[in-house]
Amino acid sequence: MDALNAAEILAALGHESRLAIFRLLVEAGPEGINASAIGEQLSIPNATLSFHLSHLSRVGLIKGERESRFIHYSAEYETMDELIAFLTHNCCQGKACLPKTAACDTVAKRRTKKPESQE
């Protein structure tokens, strides 16, 4: 990720409604949630919601997939992980100084986890 891309993503998240949408989708997990449910849960009118969803999609933070008449949205965890990695690259000259970031599951950590039945 380069600085321009990171700045665009951070600018998208700099709006209260877009940040709320993104956090809701992160919490929803990989299965995501449909647009109407997002609007209902966050009390965002459809036209405004559509604008914000489009902006988040354009910067690569979310993706939408059509399911019959509805569009189902989910967070792009890889983009989120790349942004966090960009922001924390060489932090504190390589010393472990970010315990909350280290404790978060990143895409790489999720990919290496075995299903609970195999552990």
Gist?
This protein is mainly alpha-helical and 119 residues long.
Account of the protein in words:
The model is unreliable at 110-119 (pLDDT under 50). The chain has 7 helices and 3 strands. The longest helix is centred in the first third of the chain and has 13 residues, at 16-28. It has 119 residues and is mostly helical. It is elongated. Strand 2 and strand 3 form a beta hairpin. A 3-stranded antiparallel beta sheet has the order 1-3-2. Helix 2 crosses helix 4 (46-58) and helix 3 crosses helix 4.
Low-pLDDT windows of residues: 110-119
**What is the CA-atom radius of gyration, in angstroms?**
16 Å
Number of helices: 7
Largest sheet: 3 strands, antiparallel
DSSP strand (E) fraction?
5-15%
Number of strands: 3
**In order across it, which strands form the biggest sheet?**
1-3-2
How would you spell out the order of helices and strands? HHEHHEEHHH
Structural class category: mainly alpha
Identify the overall geometry. Answer: elongated
Mean pLDDT across every amino acid position: 85
Q: State the end-to-end distance.
A: 33 Å
Q: Give the helix level as a range of percent.
A: 55-70%
SSE layout and pairings?
Layout: H1 3-13, H2 16-28, E1 33-34, H3 35-42, H4 46-58, E2 62-67, E3 70-75, H5 77-88, H6 99-103, H7 107-112
Helix pairs in contact: 2-4, 3-4
Question: Can you tag this structure with a few keywords?
Answer:
3 strands, mainly alpha, 119 residues, disordered C terminus, elongated, 3-stranded antiparallel β-sheet
